[in-house]
Structures are given as structure tokens and as C-alpha cells.
Amino acid sequence: MALISGPPAQIVPIKHSVLSLQFASAPTPCQDRNSQPVDADEALRRLKVGDAWAVLAVSGEDVHELTNWLMRLRHPLGGQTSRVIAFLPDCASPGAMAALNAGADALLPIDSPPQLIRAQLARLRERLAPQTGDRVQLEPLLELDGQTRTLRIQDHCLSLPSQQFLLLWALGARPGDILSPQELRLAMDIPARAHADTVHTAVARLRRHLRPHDLHQRVQTVHGAGYRWATEKSMQ
Fold first, then answer.
1. Which residues mediate DNA binding here (predicted)?
2. pLDDT class for 82, splitting at 50, 70, 90?
3. Rounded to whole angstroms, how far apart are CA atoms 43 and 156?
């Protein structure tokens, strides 16, 4: 897979919330005022249903509560936790390494200013919901064009509805990786109020678009975890 530069596309705003979670060992709360304070169970619930896309988790030197919470998050989401920024007094401590091993996506000092927090959130958002201003080269004769929102199959251009294109872009940008329904909700900018089966419906519609070109089997279901784009090599 290769990303090829192109003119910027319009960025669609993401409607999902950022939550803040403060564990008992944390000396101070997160300094980001745009996030919504919640407790540990509420954060897990809202991530699971897609009502939030990121958590700012603040801990002290004792990271036991933080790592236990991260492990609880990993299991129901099929190991796809890439939405948690952990704030610690010392980001080079053994506890910091334990937080990363448990599933934290990034670490920041506990006294990080709001500007640094928002910059880290922006990087996280770009990775989970790739912007479609470029192109994704799936294979030599198979390419996604973000400017025209089409799938180029040799000399043929297949136009896709916006939601199905964003779904295929998210899967194709990480071939072989399993993306959880929560990650795909974010990539497709699905509001939290949408039905829980919205991702499954979008996958079915995408497969119908790909079936005439014998590409529908590339969108694979990994039961209990999510979906992935299978490469031509893995299908042989």
C-alpha cells in the first residue's frame, strides 16, 4: 500500500466526543476543557457504543487502575484501543511502559498544556479517520482516488457513495489489519445516535458494489473483532 500526494480534500468534521478520565492516583485533572469528565465504567460504555472516539486518561505514579482499565477496554473492542492518551507524571517511568503495553496509544506529561493535547488528538484522529485528499494504491492496477472518490480498477473508474468510499479507504489504507466497528464508525463519521448495525449495513452495501468486479471477497469479516481488506496475495 502506498499513499500518493494529491490536492487536499474537504475535511468532514467528526461528531464524536472526547472524554477525560481521572484515576484516584492522579494529583490533578486533565487540563483540556473541551473533554467531558466521566468515570471508568461510563468511558468504557461510550467507547463501546461509538458515542466517543478518544479518552484522556490521567494517572499518578501508581498505574494499576489505568492498566486494568486499558485491559478491560482491549477485550470488548477486539484489541483495537488506538484512542487513549495517558497522562503521567513521568513518561519515562516503568509505569509509563506498562501503560503502553496495556494499550495506551500515546503518553503525555500530566502538566501538558491544552495546545499540546489538542495537537496529539489531531494526530490520533488523522490515523483513525484518514482524510481522502490523496490516493491509496491497493495494488498495481487497483487504486482509490480521494479527490474523485472513485476506485480505479485498471482503466475503469467505479464511483462509490460517500459512506462506502470512506469505509473502503479506511480498510484499504491498512491492508490485512482488523478494524473494529468503532474505528470504522469514526472513519465513516457515523453519528453516535445512528443504529448499531450501521457499520454492518455499510459493509454489505460495499460488497454489493464490488461484486461485479469480483472484489467483494476482499472485504472480510473477522467475527468478534471487525473487518479487514485482504490483499490479492493473501487470497491466493
1. 133-231
2. low
3. 45
